[in-house]
Amino acid sequence: MVTYILRRLGAGVLLLAIVTLVTFMIFYVVPRMAGQTVQQLATMYVGKAPTAEAIEATIDRLNLDQPVALQFWEFVKGIFVGATYSFGGREVVCSAPCFGYSFQNYTEVFPELMARLPITFSLGLGAGVIWLIGGVAVGVISAIKKGSIFDRLAMGVALAGVSLPVFFTGLLMLAFLVHAWDIFETPRYTPLAEDPVAWMTGMILPWLTLAFLHAAQYARQTRAGMLETMGEDYIRTARAKGLPERKVILKHGLRPTLTPIVTIFGLDIGLVLGGAVLTEQVYSLNGIGRYAVQAIISQDLPVILGVTLLGAFFVVVCNLIVDLLYAWVDPRVRVAG
Amino acid sequence: MSKRALGLAALGVGSALFLSACGGGGGTGGGDAAGTYDQATTEVVNASDEKGGTLRYAISANIESTDPGNTYYGYVWNFSRYYARTLLTYSPEPGKTTEPVPDMATEMPKVSDDGKSYTLTLRDGLTYEDGSPIVAEDIKYGIARSNYGDDALPNGPRYFKELLADSDDYEGVNADPSDPLAGFGGIETPDDKTIVFHLKEPFADFPYVLVQPQTAPVPAEADKGQQYQENVVSSGPYKFEGGWTPGNGLTLVRNEEWNADSDPIRTALPDQITVQEGVDQNEIDQRLINGELDVDLGGTGLGPAKKGEVLSGEDEKARLDNPENGSLRYVAVNTVVEPLDDEACRQAIMYAADHDSMQRAWGGAAGGEIPNDVIPPQIAGHDPDLDLYPSKDDKGDLDKAEEKLKECGEEDGFSTNLGVRADRPTEVAAAEAVQQSLGRVGIDVEIKQFPSDTFTNTQAGSPDFVHENELGLNIYGWIPDWPTGYGFLSYIAHGDNIKKAGNSNISELDDKEINEMLDEAVRTEDADEQARLYSDIDRRIMETGAILPIVFEKSVLYRPDNLTNVHFSQGYSMYDYMTLGTTGS
Amino acid sequence: MSAPSHAPDQAEETGPAKEGWVAAERSLRQIAWQRFRRDKVAMAGAVVVVLLIAMAVLAPLLTRLFGFPPNEFHQDLMDPLTGGALNDPANPTSGIDPWGGMSGTHLLGLEPVTGRDMFSRIVYGAQISLLVAFGATVLCVVIGTVLGIVAGYFGGWVDTVISRAMDIFLAFPLLLFAIALAGVIPDGAFGLQGNGLRVALLIFIIGFFNWPYIGRIVRGQTLTLKEREFVEAARSLGAGNGHILFRELLPNLVTPILVYSTLLIPTNIIFEASLSFLGVGINPPTPSWGGMLSNSLDYYTTSPHYVIIPGLAIFITVLAFNLFGDGLRDAFDPRSSD
Prior knowledge:
The complex is a heterotrimer. Chain A is mainly α. Chain A has helices spanning 2-28, 30-33, 38-43, 52-61, 68-81, 109-144, 149-162, 166-180, 196-230, 233-240, 245-273, 277-282, 288-297, 301-329, 332-336, and strands spanning 83-87, 90-94, 101-102, 107-108. In chain A, the strands form two sheets. Chain A has a two-stranded antiparallel ribbon with strand order 1-2. A two-stranded antiparallel sheet of chain A has the order 3-4. Chain A is globular. Chain A starts with a helix and ends with a helix. By secondary structure, chain B is α+β, with helices and mostly antiparallel strands. Helix content of chain B is 29%, strand content 16%. A six-stranded mixed beta sheet of chain B has the order 14-18-13-17-15-16, sandwiched between helices. In chain B, helix 17 (512-523) runs antiparallel to helix 18 (527-544). Chain B starts with a helix and ends with a strand. Helix content of chain C is 65%, strand content 0%. Chain C is built from eleven helices and no strands. The interface between A and C is large, with 62 and 47 residues.
């Protein structure tokens, strides 16, 4: 078990390293290939008085004229041991884990990410619970009552669900549920600790919007999986043994179906925690995703790098958790890897 | 000019009296809290001297910076006065809001006979939030940190650096840690109460420069460079609670050390002031209407969605103000990119443009007036009778346009590119309108989008980039740093101000006649003579076809019922924040 | 790390079974076609897909018959005070038309501010959506097939490297990456200008990030196929790897690839719309559905039609492709019973 965990951890760390490297390349190398000069890059961070001297000073201060490999090394080093930047003649210490320093906002990236994390977590975890339970439940019932009106209706809705982009669902909810019919108030984030009721009422529309898309996928997948397992021989055996149908379905039917679902859930939730970009954008929730979009618009490289890294981190961690769960449940996995 | 500036001193005192009279008596529309349409543009609405409550601001972006030395946005210049007092500021009296009046200074500056030195005296009782006294050297320090050296604060203007004498070798407050101000000869502080500015040349508009927030005092030991924004040491009636980082909002609470007697400008009615950042514009507008919010900090007014809705409802319309905000929105027609280097080709564009269409794209009549010249109506030199490119219903004169095309040897039309900020839907719509109207005479325009954060520095603001990408046209806007002809025109039309990056003279207009007239105007003391010069410049710019005006922009500002003492400040192009109070919600 | 897939299902089952595989394949296709024809829902999807493609191709003709040039302004129909909202013809002084100006002349109403004809813009918007989605799908298929077949056939370290690469792609915050990448490429890069560059960029980004879905399926198929006799036979006759890969294996992969690329198209349509929604799509004034939705964020209170119409266009298109693709997959699935 220990070697297995170590191997998985190693793979996760490697993955993170590659993601960081690729992100770094996209922002530091691709624009140069496309013809951007160091001066142009520096001009983005020099404020509103971009004199030639100020640009040179910025290049120097941010090490923009150093080889990309060295800049990359500095960035990675910062994550582990922190970094020191010179701003306005004063040393600014960015303590570990230093995800960089926003050249445009004069803030450390990591605390900014942490400040927004609760919003994205509230959104992602709340929606995740809804879509996992909702999607699987609908899928199971549909499978059991295959061909019934419920099944047809549910699968119809699910098919529509996977065909609706979240920003369209979100806009519809805003235009009708919030604005025209005044049923819900405009979504906004209130910290859970501050006011649990406001937290919930403020997040309910974003949850539903994000959950609908995923629930639809999960319902379809669960149904397909259930139908497949319920046709297997061992189910017939179980029935023949005289086990009650409930037990047959829940114990023998659902379990193998859930395995791939949980795997996908791990990946999905990991991606959402790294920033539910579209949902946050539609509802103007200041989570990680919106922070990233703003940073991309203003080309604030350290922020973009930080967000991407954090996003990949969540994917890796969630996958790791799923893998370890499997290994714990089913010892064969450890060998098969 | 100094005569006029000195004359204003009396007005400064007068305005304080005016406000307190207002607070006592009400006097607008018989106690109707809602006021009437456009009322606060010209007078104080909902006058009250009721103290207390929380005044709630929100803004759709992040605050640029709370540091008074590191900002170029009018809303921060306006708002920062809550905690950062300046030498002079704009008058809070309606109708005179473009005139500088004393704030920390006892009176308007005394100008030497040669027009090159300005002397001010500080009021008694000026203190920081810790109770220590504000001294003249702290003001000098504030100006030094924001203007001088490679590591000067990046966002603010650099007028002091351009204007002050004896300071060209000064390398900023970090050059010599033991004596940050060594070598900064442009400002003298003979004693704690006196500050003297020495200029290279006479500059009649200098009082306007003293209005800028860079004249707020900064104690040297509290300066943390760009990070000073996290906790600005207050000199005004409010101080930071819990610090500020971009995007996380700001709370201001009363600064008990502030001495009301020393302050003729601020009424300091609310007990607390809050700012929420990054709130979607639609959401801000809705909260204003619901009474859950008092002021949209950005001061640019309702977004397109709510604007349409509120303007079409009679009751709600009474809560709107629709002032011209003093800015010109225009298409910068580049004078270097071919074939626009030919004046006739530029004039063809001036004739072909459909002003009605561009105005509608900019939000219709509520979005702005169609201009026939460059200098906005609020500024001396504006000529209401000028109309060099007349057309029926402002739809453009296509025959004349084709004539001009023939004249510049492009009778079949030509192709050019139009740069626009991608994340500004109004500007994109205006770009499309320009594209459509020029297409009528065979001028084929391709729209190129750029991020607004980099547009003014590295794309439209970089002549090299403009030439390389043949950006013959760029959608741009200009709000003057101060409301005079020079404050408005020098950065967008003076040939000496063409810069390699961060260029505002995007047309690259370098006309000898215009340059000379501008230089002359700012040395001219007589106001009428000066206005006449600006009118000539105005006409000449229109002749060159380097600036195609879109609108003199108007804001649609929402005035919630619980907001008191509301009036529009032309100087800041938004409500005057220092007088606002709230009756609670 | 385990590498879950978002691809609709695993597909080990569609391959041909025995020798005489060409005949088997042909008859399998015939059976599939018969099944597909009986599937009314899938047929409906197919019909809509055909109509949509026809709409995109015939856009100039359609707009001439039923609409206006897509970029033509009709600002005279807008409220002159705000410029943005649509005048209510029934109540011209103070009304906003709740129907967005829909009429016999403007079938789907008008866009706020510019007053451009929505019908024409929707029709032309289909061109961009479908062009990008098809282009990206082709790119996905090419990359996915080549890498998948190579990984599956050669196995060993080649397989390991390619499979890990697929894992990495799946772990990336794709959308963030895509907008970031689309944002940093300046105009004129790689010798392309304007919308040519934008379309190429969208196709490249979407294709480049979505290939692992196809890659996995092809790899899985190849793994099962390479053990079959016909591959053994070819090998014993001295055929080279190239011949086996592309002459023996590839023809057998055509069916699953086709089926799964049909299912990839709707994903790519949504991806394109998402990028346009986030502001990194095509340049104005060229219409795109995602771009219209992005603009509608400012107008959903006064002009809800501006939200609904482009949104429905995306929905119908994606749904039709999903129905079509689902039907196709079921038809080729030997185990599907109905």
